Structure of Acetyl-CoA C-acetyltransferase:
Amino acid sequence: MSTAYIVAAARTAGGRKAGRLSGWHPADLAGKVLDALVDRAQADPALIEDVIMGCVSQVGEQSSNVARNAVLSSKLPESVPATSVDRQCGSSQQAVHFAAQAVMSGVHDIVIAAGVESMSRVPMGLSMVLPAKNGFGGPNGEAIKQRYPGIEFSQFLGAEMMAKKYDISKDQLDEYALGSHQRAIAATRAGAFEQEVVPIEITLPDGNKELHTVDEGIRFDATLEGIRGVKLIQEGGRVTAATASQICDGASGVLIVNEKGLKTLGVQPLARIHHMSLLGHDPVIMLEAPLPATERALKKAGMKIDDIDLFEVNEAFAPVPIAWLKATGADPARLNVNGGAISLGHPLGASGTKLMTTLVYALKQRNKRYGLQTMCEGGGMANVTIIERL
């Protein structure tokens, strides 16, 4: 079986809700990332055999196969097909897996895995709200209700359950959130994101044009006192908006090829995909899946936690990475070294390839070898991807 290589990776800087990227249609925003990937690989756009794009809220401006609309919004020719994937927050990480599987099998040689989410223009949960207006119910049918009687599936409740299960105090959550901002600030000031970010032209309120290149969610004035003062999401709980991921607009992607694709493009790989796996877990606590998924992935890969140089664990809520550290015994200094979704934002379907892009460049900048990425996903699932920098 062939090897899957990453030869280009790119992402937009995140935009806050109703912020700097809210004027961009999601298909156009994703199209800019597709263009950047082709440009970075100096590839003939017609050589792309498929685009697999993660997106969670596939409704409104992200409906009707947003991946195909992104292709038609880019420099890629009409001959390039595309499909949209929903594995909740892991949608574009799953797109990476699908793309890698395609080139490893030899079905394709050159595939783009990408993701997009405009949470300003397509609000989270919109796909569940619309049926209710027409008298229909939500995503859970009678069979699920019978299997989990009286259970409310909620990521907010899952976050609180994790904090209690792993004995994580509110103070620990607040301190972790501050650290996320501090790492993101340091990375931004050091220019760590410059190679990965695709500049996006925006129009300012005064009509002037400007390039958006800095993640808008980073709070450069963040203090522990300020974070501690944010209202609890649930009365008697421990999680606040400050210790949860930020609503975010963004797009991201990676170009994945096999050996034949490398020769066709005449490029050097940035990394190879060493391992891919995923796991279903308890849908009630929901966010815990990355913990057993990581353990299982390392076992399948024949590796130990200390073999991994850098980790990207999505900061959907602060209890997730903290509990993950407790369960795995990983070195905290190797985790989310450039900040995470608490500071940089979590553009749902775009987060998988966003984290992968950051991981690829972080390994390069630090001259490290192995990186592991995982994230919790709605319904109690987790993808795990291990890459080797080349």
Q: What stands out?
A: The radius of gyration is 20 Å.
